[in-house]
Amino acid sequence: MKRIIAIVAGGDSSEHDVSLRSAQGIYSFINKDLYECYIIEIKGLEWTVLMDDGEKIPVNKGDFSFEKEGNTIRPDFAYITIHGKPGENGILQGYFDLLRIPYSTSSVMVESLTFNKYFLNQFLKAFGIRIANSILIRQGKEYEWSDEEIVNQIGLPCFIKPSNDGSSFGVSKVYTKEQIRQAIAKSMKQDSQVMIESFINGREITCGCYKTKKESIVFPITEVVTSNEFFDYDAKYNGEVEEITPARISDKTAKRVKDLTSRIYDILGCEGIIRIDYILTGEKDNEDINLLEINTTPGMTATSFIPQQIKAAGLNIGNVLSNIIENKF
Question: What is the pLDDT of residues 202-238, one digit of tens each?
């Protein structure tokens, strides 16, 4: 019998609809000869199965089952492709752990840590990973740091962003002291914790990776080129970016980036596909590799970074997804 796969999408973040597009991508990639697949949309407490004919079937959250044509269907595996809460911060992972349903991502602890940009950065610094200097501002304590102290500690320009958020909403690039408070308020609309981070001027790249009991795969690197102030929502999803795979970097630098990606994967104990974003700075062929962010549920539309990288590696994306699923059984 075929395993029943639930592709879990939607969520409660500003990237709800983007997540649904990733779900459609995964649905198209998965080998239907091996798996029976359903897309399940989560929106607050409303969980529904999106059927091909447009019907929406409610999900029983008590055991993650649903009724179809008089039969009770309970998925064997959850492929989580929610960008943001509750699929990228450990909450949904804890739910599936309680139900003993295996899933595609890392554990509760890893998801929770990687979702909080500030705490992740402080953790990885202990392993010698190069990270931009940053400070954390909590709601209710916005003036714990004065504007002058922020500028002296972080410098200008700087980035002000939600610490617990998987999207580009609420992110500002700040050039003057006078812009700081407005940017903090903007980020606070997305999250109660705000990270203020030093600006690193360099070449942005991103590298995907996954590991199973049998293999360790690091994908070709993508170079990200945008004329926008930074890799914001429009750059991500509205085509205002050039994505070059493989990146225009030396073989030596590419190997160092891939080795670092694999090392970070192991330090954190990640599972499934992750994608790590970096900034390269300094002398060509001997660049410093600065970590920007770790994505544990990266985009999976046909034009997203990971499918691009899998194609550039000469791999079949259906086989990659099968490897990730079967690794949990």
Answer: 999 999 999 999 999 999 999 999 776 655 555 555 5
Q: Map the chain to HEC letters.
A: CCEEEEEEEECCCCCHHHHHHHHHHHHHHCCCCCEEEEEEEEECCEEEEECCCCCEEECECCCCEEEECCEEECCCEEEECCCCCCCCCCHHHHHHHHHCCCECCCCHHHHHHHHEHHHHHHHHHCCCCEECCEEEEECCCCCCCCHHHHHHHHCCCEEEEECECCCCCCCEEECCHHHHHHHHHHHHCCCCEEEEEECCCCEEEEEEEEECCCCEEECCCEEEECCCCCCCHHHHHCCCCEEECCCCCCHHHHHHHHHHHHHHHHHHCCCCCEEEEEEEECCCCCCEEEEEEEECCCCCCCCCHHHHHHHHCCCCHHHHHHHHHHCCC
Read off the tokens for 315.
Answer: 């791999």
Closest by CA position to 11, among listed 86, 74, 61: 86
143's tokens: 């003036």
Structure tokens at 83: 């960008």
Which residues does 261 contact at the CB level (< 8 Å), separation at least 6? 207, 208, 209, 218, 276
Burial of 152 (0-12, 13-18, 19+ CB in 10 A): exposed
- Letter string b/e over residues 176-192, b meaning 16 or more CB atoms within 10 A of that residue's CB: eeebbeebbebbbebbe
pLDDT of residue 170 exceeding 80, the answer is yes
Cis peptide before 307 (omega within 30 of 0): no
When mean pLDDT is compared across 11-20, 40-49, 160-169, 179-188, the lowest value belongs to 160-169
The Cα angle at residue 28 between residues 23 and 34, in degrees rounded to 5: 105
In the block, residue with structure tokens 């085509």: 239
